[in-house]
Amino acid sequence: NDCVFVITNSDACGMQGMDIAHVMAFFSLQQHGRWNPCAVIHWFNWVGNAPDPDTGMWMVKPAFAMHNTRHFAVIHIDTVFWAAHLIPVFGTTPLSPSIKFHHVFDISVAIGVVYARAKVRGDRGNP
What pTM was estimated for this model as a whole? Predict the structure, then answer.
């Protein structure tokens, strides 16, 4: 369940230039004799335009495309800025013991983003 900050607008500052994604798989493909490191990701959408006033964390939720299907994409590894740690927020109802870790993002009410300073590519400062 690796999550990352992905640079989606290199002209924007901080969080306005990044999005959050859940990495599903890493792979490389060859094009014109050159190997390109890539990742299959599931995008998250931002909830609001500022951090949550109670927690101070930016909030996200899983992104869905048409017909309520997950919004997947293939990205180049160079667009990955650094690792992100997401904290799921659940309601007041107890969770079933049958819930597996890979379902957490699907059943949470909201998801808080915590900055993780594990450098993936060149560090460009704080988000």
Answer: 0.77
Q: Please report, for residues 6, 59, 70, 119, the alpha-carbon distance to residue 37 in angstroms, rounded to integers and kept in the order given.
A: 14, 29, 23, 17
Cβ count near 123 (within 10 Å) = 10
Grouping H, G, I as helix, E, B as strand and the rest as coil, residue 117 is strand
Quick check: 118 pLDDT over 60?
no
Here the tokens at position 21 are: 């994604």
Q: Which two tokens stand for residue 24?
A: 């599903």
How far is C-alpha 73 from the geometric centre of its chain's CA atoms? 12
Summarised one tens digit per residue, pLDDT across range 35-82 is: 999 999 999 999 888 888 888 888 898 898 888 888 999 999 999 998
Paired with 87 in beta bridges are 112
